[in-house]
Amino acid sequence: MYFTDGIEGLYEKLRTRRPHFLTTAQQEKLITFIKKNACKQDGGLLIGSDVLAYIKQEFNQNCHSDY
């Protein structure tokens, strides 16, 4: 902060982030799936539970809608 580091203490610091849940390749595959299935042939729409099921089936990753 300012009192200990002067003006330098006021500059924005780099922040560490949690690693991505899916790799870049997996993200691309998921994007393709969503674009391809956004509107279903029977007239329905792709919903969150469909995406979560796809992630579990294709990537064996457990997630929930709070992510």
Radius of gyration (Å): 20 Å
How confident overall, as mean pLDDT?
86
Order of helices and strands: HHH
Low-pLDDT windows of residues: none
Structural class: mainly alpha
Give the termini separation: 32 Å
Count of β-strands: 0
Secondary structure: helix percent: 40-55%
Can you describe what's shown?
This protein is mainly α. The chain has one domain (21-67). It is built from 3 helices and no strands. The longest helix is centred in the middle third of the chain and has 14 residues, at 24-37. The radius of gyration is 20 Å and the shape is elongated. The mean pLDDT is 86.
Produce a short descriptive summary.
The longest helix has 14 residues, at 24-37. The mean pLDDT is 86.
Which key features would you list for this structure?
mainly alpha
Layout of helices and strands, plus pairs?
Layout (H helix, E strand, L loop, with lengths): L1 H4 L18 H14 L10 H12 L8
